[in-house]
Amino acid sequence: MRLRLIMLFIMFILLGGSFAPAQLSAASSPQDEPVSKSDSSEEEQLTLGQLRQKYADTFKTNGPSTKQVALTFDDVPDPRFTPQVLDILKKYKVRATFFIVGNRAEKHPDLVRRMVKEGHIVGNHSYNHPEFSKLSMNAFRKQILHTGDIIRDLAGYTPKMIRPPYGDINEQQLQWSAKQRYSIVNWNVDSLDWKGLPKDKVKENILSAVKPGSIVLQHAGGGVGSNLNGTIEALPEVIKELRNRGYELVTLDEMLGLPKGK
Fold first, then answer.
1. What's the predicted TM-score (pTM) here?
2. What is the DSSP string of the chain?
3. What is the mean pLDDT of the chain?
4. Cis-peptide, bond into residue 79, ω within 30° of zero
5. C-alpha to C-alpha distance for 261 and 122, rounded to whole angstroms
6. Domains with residue ranges and CATH for the chain
7. What phi and psi values does residue 103 have, to the nearest 5 degrees?
8. Per-residue pLDDT at 256
9. Which residues are catalytic?
C-alpha cells in the first residue's frame, strides 16, 4: 500500500500536479470564458441612430418632408418660465407640444391645465427626469405609468408620446413602449437653450438647422439656477421667421399623424 502511494505521488508530480485543493483555475472558470458577440449585451447595444432605424414605427425624430415645423418644450411645468412661453404662443396663435415631468405637474397642476385649455398637446417626460438607460425595466415602467396617470387626471388623456430625458432609451425599453402602443419622440433640431445661451444664439441654432418636418427642442422649465431667457426672447422672432419661410407651426400629433392619447 505504501509503495502504491509513493508511485501515485511520483506520477502526480510528473504530470504537473500540486497540493492545492481540487478546483477550477481562474483561467478556466465558466463565467470568465470568452463571450461571443451574440452573448454580450454591451457589444450588442445599439446606438440611438440604429434604434431609430430598427424601430422606425415607434421611434421618431422628425416628421414628413412637408412645410411644417413642430415646436416642442421640455421639463415643464415650471412657474419661472412656462407662463412666459405660454404667453408668447398665445399672442402669436401657435399651438405647441409640451413634455411634462410628473413630479413638477404634481406641484404646478394649474400650468398643465392651462396648456391643455390653450390648445397645446402634452407628452410624457418621466416622473423625475432620470436617464432611462440606467434604470431597471421595473423602474422605467413606473416612471412612464405613474406620470401618465398624473397627466391623465389633469389633461383628460394619457399621452401617447414619450420623450426620454436626454433623448436616451435602450432597446428593451423601446420594445416595451411599442407593445404598450406608445411613441418615442425625440428631435432633429436642438436649440441648446438649456445652456443659458443668449437670444441670438438660440435663434441661430434653430433657424440654421430647421427644414421641412423638423421637430425643434426647446425648454420651458429647468433645474435650480437655469436661465431660459434666451429661448423666451428668441421665440417671437423664431415664430415670425418660420412663418416668413412658409412653414406651418403644428403640434406633434398633427405632424406625425398620431393620436394625442393612448
1. 0.83
2. -HHHHHHHHHHHHHTT--SSPS---GGG-GGGSPPPGGG-HHHHPPPHHHHHHHTTTTEES---SSSEEEEEEEEE--TTTHHHHHHHHHHTT---EEEEPHHHHHH-HHHHHHHHHTT-EEEE--SS---GGGS-HHHHHHHHHHHHHHHHHHHSS-BSEE--GGG---HHHHHHHHHTT-EEE--SEE--GGG---HHHHHHHHHTT--TTEEEEEES--STT---HHHHHHHHHHHHHHHHTTPEEE-HHHHHT--SB-
3. 87
4. no
5. 9
6. 48-256 (3.20.20.370)
7. -70, -20
8. 98
9. 74, 219
Grid cell locating 135: 434604470
Looking at residue 22, its pLDDT comes to: 31
Nearest residue to 171 via CA among 43, 60, 61, 45: 45
Task: State residue 92 phi and psi, 5-degree precision.
Answer: -95, 10
Which ranges of the chain have pLDDT less than 50? 1-43
Grid coordinates representing 243?
412663418
Helix axes 199-207, 229-244, angle to 10 degrees: 40
Report the alpha-carbon distance of residue 261 to residue 93 in Å, rounded. Answer: 23
